[in-house]
């Protein structure tokens, strides 16, 4: 698909940055995140003659931050929305503060819902008038398929993202908009450091550029793309094993990670 303009959340690093770099030079960009310097550096790197690249530094855990991003997306007339921004903490729930728990839900659940609902009408209208198609990517996770101890709230929010994207795609059947849920496994991004996980856990992780490319290639062809570590095994475990067995396997693996990581 040749998109005229794309809004990418969480674009300052990792998979979000990879999405911005993977889109063709003819696609305008609205890049948002909290790291202003990183966003401006990326925008400068991706600037091309005639290409509109905008930066919006915003905290997506807040209504004012989301409102600023929505306004920028509308002003740019986007036809591709990449809901990539995510937040997680590697710890049992009692060790997380209420603010941390709330922030995960705000960024991982509220933000894609609010941005999608606010921007979708304009995206559909522009696509219908231009005889083109719009696109929405919701970045979920391999953790969406099973409850994950020590990533409890994070995994639950990613399950929401997966179900939301799949159902949204069904809601939009017959409309000029494709929807994709992207479920990466361990990926070499800054998520590990920010969440409190150890860098060695991501040693064999996927390249974020490969993850972003798989999503772009799958949009309009698939409803769900699973890529990286556990891309085959985890969904199979979730679907084929009795739930208590699958949950037990996840708990055992997370306890092993906890012991090795010293948590």
Q: Could you give a quick summary of the protein structure above?
A:
This protein has 263 residues and is α/β, with parallel strands linked by helices.
Account of the 3D structure:
The chain is α/β, with parallel strands linked by helices and 263 residues long. The chain has a single domain, classed as NAD(P)-binding Rossmann-like Domain (Rossmann fold, 3-Layer(aba) Sandwich). It has nine helices and seven strands; from the N terminus they run βαβαβαβαβαβααβαα. The mean pLDDT is 87.
CATH class: Alpha Beta
Structural class: alpha/beta
* Uncertain parts: none
Give the total of beta strands: 7
Which superfamily, in CATH terms, is the homologous superfamily?
NAD(P)-binding Rossmann-like Domain
Radius of gyration computed on alpha carbons:
18 Å
Provide the CATH topology.
Rossmann fold
Distance from N terminus to C terminus (CA atoms, Å) equals 45 Å
* CATH-scheme architecture: 3-Layer(aba) Sandwich
Strand order of the largest sheet: 3-2-1-4-5-6-7
Supply the number of helical segments. 9
What is the chain-wise order of helices and strands?
A: EHEHEHEHEHEHHEHH
The percent range for helix content is 40-55%
Write the layout of secondary structure elements.
Layout: E1 5-9, H1 14-22, E2 28-33, H2 36-46, E3 53-57, H3 63-76, E4 80-83, H4 98-130, E5 134-139, H5 152-171, E6 177-184, H6 191-195, H7 208-218, E7 224-227, H8 233-240, H9 243-261
Parallel strand pairs: 1-2, 1-4, 2-3, 4-5, 5-6, 6-7
């Amino acid at each position: 698909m040749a998109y005229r303009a794309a809004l990418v959340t969480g674009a300052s690093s990792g998979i979000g940055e990879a999405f911005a770099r993977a889109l063709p030079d003819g696609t305008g960009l609205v890049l948002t995140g909290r790291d202003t310097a990183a966003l401006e550096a990326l925008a400068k790197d991706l600037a091309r003659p005639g290409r509109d690249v905008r930066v919006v530094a915003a905290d997506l855990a807040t209504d004012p931050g989301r409102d600023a991003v929505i306004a920028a997306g509308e002003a740019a007339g986007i036809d591709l929305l990449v809901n990539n921004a995510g937040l997680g903490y590697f710890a049992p729930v009692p060790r997380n503060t209420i603010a941390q728990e709330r922030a995960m839900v705000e960024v991982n659940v509220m933000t894609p819902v609010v941005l999608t609902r606010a921007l979708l009408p304009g995206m559909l209208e522009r696509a219908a008038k231009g005889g083109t198609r719009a696109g929405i990517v919701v970045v979920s996770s391999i953790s969406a398929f099973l409850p994950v101890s020590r990533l409890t709230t994070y995994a639950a929010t990613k399950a929401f993202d997966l179900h939301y994207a799949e159902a949204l795609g069904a809601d939009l059947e017959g409309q000029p908009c494709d929807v994709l849920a992207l479920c990466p496994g361990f990926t070499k991004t800054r998520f590990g450091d920010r969440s409190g996980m150890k860098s060695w856990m991501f040693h064999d992780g996927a390249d974020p550029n490969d993850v972003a490319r798989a999503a772009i290639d799958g949009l309009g062809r698939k409803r769900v793309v699973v890529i990286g570590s556990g891309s085959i095994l985890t969904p199979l475990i979730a679907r084929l094993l009795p739930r208590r067995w699958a949950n037990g396997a996840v708990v055992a693996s997370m306890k092993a990670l906890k012991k090795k990581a010293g948590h």
